[in-house]
Design brief:
The complex is a heterodimer.
Chain A: H1 24-40, H2 42-46, H3 58-71, H4 81-95, H5 98-114, H6 123-139, H7 149-163, H8 170-191, H9 193-198, H10 203-219, E1 231-233, H11 239-243, E2 252-260, H12 266-276, E3 278-285, E4 288-295, H13 302-310, E5 311-320, H14 321-331, E6 344-350, H15 353-361, E7 366-369, H16 378-386, E8 392-396, H17 403-411, E9 416-419, H18 425-432, H19 441-451, E10 456-462, E11 467-469, E12 472-474, E13 479-483, E14 486-491, H20 494-504, E15 512-517, H21 523-536, E16 541-546, E17 552-558
Parallel strand pairs in A: 1-3, 6-7, 6-8, 8-9, 15-16
Antiparallel strand pairs in A: 2-4, 2-5, 3-4, 10-13, 10-17, 11-12, 13-14, 15-17
Helix pairs in contact in A: 1-3, 1-4, 1-10, 3-4, 3-5, 4-5, 5-6, 6-7, 7-8, 7-10, 8-10, 16-17, 18-19, 20-21
Chain B: E1 2-6, E2 9-13, H1 15-28, E3 32-35, H2 52-55, E4 56-60, E5 65-74, H3 79-98, E6 102-113
Parallel strand pairs in B: 5-6
Antiparallel strand pairs in B: 1-2, 3-5, 4-5
Classes of the chains: A alpha/beta, B alpha+beta.
């Protein structure tokens, strides 16, 4: 990847930036560039998860950590590089999210320490700062696991030290360090078997690599907005995620399948596409390429015309994104019942608009959007209930990864808040049935907590990695079923997975089966599967709801 | 104590075995510089223990497992993030190793270690 920036003195037109010594302001610019590039490639980092459920969020965690770091210096005009580095380190510490975020904040902490009161960062001090970052990060753990972001930080420090023999220009050192980081990331599976088994490289290390690469791209005047020209397997193309980054002016999404006549030159292919639009993704499988791009209305046909010059176009799909967005926004509105002062208000986290609507219809006073991949922050949860006209609040996190954030939110407010630790949407719904807004807060919270176990939860999703967990072996792309959070089976089709799940949950002994279907599945397909379930469970009442959640084809409540 | 009856006999996993898994997982978690005994007070709590059963408590209620960890964390890290990732790592390791659900992992931060940076 990114062979264009490796090598010694850059052959590109040199950014005038290189003429200046690295002071606080330049350091700030470089950090921002690194963050921008990491954000651009966030999905690549997120996709490097070891577990077979789509919850990889290392990229997101690192981006959020760096955002917080940068916010600390955004409005500062401080020129002393040491002071800026300390401020960035402080911001990273305060905003650290997840394991990778914590380690990143430690790297910054050491980095800043080495620059104490240093006006400019020269070559030797940069090398010292990398070394100190490494040392500080390694101090944070008794038994460092190699093959992680720590190893990459170590190799970066070593490469920096090495480069000091040939140059003492900090820009050159940065440039030389990036290929070493890349190499180190590629080696992580050799050091950590769990990565090798999952067929991925370490996500934190990859994130750190992108961060540094972004700095060097910026120095060399390369774009930071277009993702690295990576061709991924067709199955890994994440078209839903691309939708979130629609910019005004890029109204149409064009997806083209084609077979190139001769070997495709990815670099020049990307370069040409970049002139037409944004959100470019290219996937490949069996010689068939699929490309995805967002273009303005007047350029709708340009990608098609261009692709036709390269080979045989087999399929074209064009969609109007703005219309879709408007539709999505219009359905995302909820009808909340009014809350009177003194009553209990419930705040629920909902992974999809449909599920949010169901919660609203059951009397929830506010919805926080979020779920498996995008855990809402403590702040977002806090914001949801701070403005409610009552001081008695119950939070339903509806996901085990959000319970902690909810508890923290509860501690940060003057309102009386109880967290009912629902670990899934069905548990949250079961709890809502016990809501009595005028009773005492503790009694209601206790009742609701007791209700959590009355329902069984099933989740159906597609494995994003081949892996073996809980004795179930899963191939990438297979359908997997989780029963109360535990992986119980993998199957070739959705209906098989649903039936396996219902069997494991002993659904025949329950009365009601509710299926919330996600955004990734067509209504027709849902009907077909529901018919199969109906004939298998004739004695149970089966309900179908549009959940609108991402990633999970079905969330199933059995009660 | 954690029992599983299978057609060919039963499998019993002692809390000590589970504690060992949790102990190693915790020690490999970023930000954790050691585990410490629950019963030691204040100054003495700084004593990092090597015996896994001292910093880890495992409870089994017949169906699910609850784990309490008493940890020392590196000063200067975001304690909340470290604690939640310890909790995740320990849960994952234990569930993966023994194939039984872990209901709760409670992380008790007993102290911070201030590393000498200079």
């Amino acid at each position: 990847m990114s062979s264009e920036i490796t090598g010694n003195p850059p052959s590109h037109p040199v950014n005038p930036l290189r003429k200046y010594p690295i002071d606080g302001q330049v350091l700030k610019e470089l950090t921002e560039a690194g963050l921008t590039w990491l954000r651009t490639n966030q999905q690549i980092v997120n996709s490097l998860n070891v577990f077979p459920v789509p919850d990889g969020d290392t990229g997101t965690n690192m981006v959020l950590t760096l955002q917080s770091a940068l916010a600390e210096v955004n409005n500062s005009s401080e020129r002393n590089s040491g002071k800026v580095a300390h401020a960035i380190a402080h911001g990273a510490l305060m905003g650290a999210r997840g394991n990778s975020g914590v380690i990143l904040s430690q790297l910054w902490r050491g980095f800043a320490r080495a620059l104490d009161n240093q006006e400019y960062i020269d070559g030797p001090s940069l090398v010292r700062a990398f070394a100190m970052g490494r040392d500080t990060a390694y101090k944070g753990v008794v038994r460092p696991v190699e093959g992680t972001i720590l190893t990459v930080a170590k190799d970066i420090a070593a490469a920096a030290e090495q480069s000091l023999k040939t140059t003492d220009d900090p820009y050159d050192i940065l440039t030389l360090v990036v290929p070493a980081a890349d190499l180190s990331v590629q080696h992580t599976p050799e050091l950590l078997p769990v990565l090798k088994d999952a067929g991925v490289v370490d996500s934190g290390g990859k994130g750190l690599f992108f961060f540094l690469e972004g700095m060097v791209r910026y120095i060399n005047g390369l774009s930071l907005e277009t993702p690295a020209a990576a061709v991924r397997p067709l199955s890994a193309m994440n078209l839903e995620q691309a939708m979130e980054t629609v910019e005004p002016g890029q109204d149409f999404e064009v997806v083209i399948d084609f077979r190139p006549n001769r070997e495709l030159d990815i670099e020049s292919f990307y370069a040409t596409l970049q002139e037409m639009g944004t959100s470019i993704q290219v996937g490949e499988g069996d010689g068939l390429y699929r490309m995805h791009i967002h273009v303005p209305t007047e350029k709708i046909y340009h990608p098609i015309d261009y692709t036709r010059t390269l080979g045989t176009v087999t399929k074209v799909a064009i969609e109007n994104l703005m219309a879709q967005m408007e539709q999505q926004e219009s359905v995302a509105k909820y009808d909340f019942p009014a809350v009177e002062p003194g009553q209990i208000a419930v705040v629920a986290v909902a992974p999809g608009p449909g599920i949010g609507r169901v919660f609203a219809s059951l009397g929830v006073a506010a919805i926080v959007e979020g779920g498996q991949t995008m855990n809402p922050s403590t702040q977002e949860i806090l914001r949801a209930f701070e403005n409610l006209p009552t001081d008695k609040v119950i939070i339903l996190p509806n996901n085990k990864n959000i319970i902690l954030a909810a508890r923290t939110a509860a501690e940060m407010t003057v309102k009386k808040v109880r967290v009912v630790p629902s670990r899934s949407v069905p548990q949250g719904l079961a709890a809502m049935m016990r809501l009595a807004p005028d009773e005492s807060l503790d009694v209601v919270a206790e009742e609701m907590t007791a209700a959590l176990d009355e329902v069984q939860t099933g989740e159906i999703t597609i494995a994003t990695r081949s892996v073996e967990i809980d004795g179930v072996s899963v191939q990438e792309g297979q359908v997997i079923a989780l029963h109360n959070g535990k992986l119980i089976c993998s199957a070739g089709s959705l209906e098989e997975a649903c039936l396996c799940l219902l069997k494991a949950a002993r659904a025949e002994t329950y009365e009601l089966i509710t299926l919330f279907y996600g955004v990734d599945i067509a209504r027709q397909e849902v009907n077909r599967i529901v018919d199969i379930i109906r004939s298998a469970y004739p004695d149970q009442v089966i309900e179908v709801q549009d959940g609108g959640q991402p990633h999970y084809q079905f969330i199933i409540a059995i009660e | 104590m954690s029992d599983e009856i299978s057609p060919i006999g039963s499998i019993r996993i002692s809390p000590r075995a589970i504690a060992t898994i949790a102990y190693h997982a915790a020690r490999q978690s970023y930000g954790v510089v050691g585990l410490t005994s629950k019963n030691l007070v204040n100054g003495l709590a700084r004593v990092l223990v090597k015996d896994p059963t001292h910093g880890v408590e495992v409870h089994f209620d017949g169906q699910t497992i609850t784990i309490d960890l008493y940890v020392i964390i590196e000063y200067g890290t975001r304690i909340k993030s470290v604690a939640s990732s310890v909790s995740n790592t320990v849960r994952f390791s234990v569930e993966k190793a023994i194939g039984m659900p872990v209901r709760e992992v409670n992380v008790h931060v007993r102290g911070l270690r201030i590393s000498d940076l200079d």
